[in-house]
Each structure stands twice: as structure tokens, then as C-alpha cells.
Amino acid sequence: KMSRSGSSMVLENAKVEMKLKVGGNECLMNNVKFIFSHLIASSGSKVYVSRVDLSKLIDPVLRPNFINNAGDFRTVILDPGHGGKDPGATNPYGTEANYNVKVAGLVKKQLEAKGFKVVMTRSSNLYLSLQERVNVANAVKENAIYVSIHFNSGSRTARGIETFTLSPPGVPHYDANFKAADLQTRAGNEHDSANIALATSIHGSILRRLGKNTLDRGIKRARFSVLSGVRHPAILLEGGFMSHPYEARLIENQDYQKAVATGIVDAIGKYRFAVSRRPTNAGKD
Hints:
The protein is of the alpha/beta class. The chain has helices spanning 51-62, 96-113, 130-138, 192-210, 225-229, 245-252, 254-276, and strands at residues 2-5, 8-12, 17-21, 26-29, 32-35, 41-43, 46-48, 75-80, 90-91, 94-95, 117-120, 144-152, 161-166, 216-222, 234-241. The strands form four sheets. A six-stranded mixed sheet has the order 11-8-12-15-13-14, sandwiched between helices. It has a five-stranded antiparallel sheet with strand order 1-2-3-4-5. Strands 6-7 form a two-stranded antiparallel sheet.
């Protein structure tokens, strides 16, 4: 079923509601925000979504069980960002590096209680280069997923959570201009479909845990080194803004940290289930 009012349109069936706006690049699917790689266009009464957004975002989100072998994992690699000489974002309450490792520790404990094997890139105030983080992840030879945990920084008014997956070939880093290097296929692009399905699960789960007052900044495409280099399905989470007066206090609060951690854990279980269900016909990459 489709309804349209001016530039706004809604597509829905029994399971999915999708809201789009012609000329924009945002899409709400079941109230989770996605930032498309290209603007939504129209010609006469027809509305067009780019091929890359259809094949690399909409399809794997709506049909995660068509992603080949994505559910066959029991190992989770947790990467608390920053550490050591690199504190990340800071404010009067603490450092991002410390919050990252605290949340990762909570996630680890819950995942292990559910039978997962957990690999941490760091579990103390240790400095690792971006390449060293990639090396730790790629040393894991069994099937695994990779979750990089961060908190954000920006203006005092910037707030909310956002989740990043690797940009598909031909798509630039979020909010950056296209350059020739964006055409190159990176190691992480092997799992484009699994990346977006994992991001959807984690982003939506955390939003539900944190409640309606949390601003959804969306699931976005980026060319971060860790996402480009890791050879497992990978996402990078920004769990709130250290620079926002209210969110800074939230991030310091243990209940908030537990909510983010539990959101990640719940999502990993649901993602594993969703991509493990067998489709009725041949699978796809």
C-alpha cells in the first residue's frame, strides 16, 4: 500500500512502514532512521530510489534471511574506541575512552552469559592504533561480528545516537564530497548486506532501550579505517554526545551505560536469529 501527500510518501504492509520524502535522503523504516546514499527522486507520478540504496540497504534490511551464512557466528569482537594517550572526547565528567571500555565490559559479560565468545581489542586504558584494532579483528578466523563502541563530540547543541556502516563502493564518507578512491572496494565491503542488517538491529534496539526522548540521528555510511579493514560484518556506534550538557550527564550515569550495553546484546541475539532463518528460495550475498 502506498500513499502520497506532496513530496512525502508512505509505503506499508503488515510488517513494514517506510516513510520517504522526494528530494531528501532520509528514510524511516519502522521508525528507525536511515540516511540514503543518494537523494530520492521523482518523475511525474513515479518515485525513484537509487540502485545502491535499494540493493545495499533496503533489500538486506527487509530480507536479512537472504544474506548468505551471516547467522553462522558465536564470536563477537568488541572494540572500545580510543584509550591510552588518546582519550577521545572529554568533558568534566570523564573521557570517552573510559566510557567506551565500561560499556564494552558490560556487553562482554552479558554476551558470555548467553554463550557467545567475546574478543576485546582492549579491556584497559591501552592505546591501539586503528590498524592494530583491524589486526586484532582479522586475527579471529572463525565467523564473527565486530562492534566498535564510541561516544560523540560536537557543538553543545548536537545530540543523539548514530550508527555507521562502511560505504559501499561508489558512495563517499558521510557528509563528504565524492573522490576517486571511493570507487575502490574495501575488505569490509564483502559484508555490505550483513553490515547494514547488523546496524539496523543494534541502532533500533538501543533506541528502544533509551526511550522516546533520545534523538535518532540515523544509520549512516562512512569510510572509517576500522570499518574499511575489518573482514567481518562491522558497525561503529556513537552512543551519545559528550559535548551536550544533558547527554554528558546521561553518559556518566551507570543506568544509561547499562541500557546501551543491553541494547547491543539484545540486538546481537535478534540479528543472529533474523539472518539464520532460511529463505524460501536461493540466498544472496
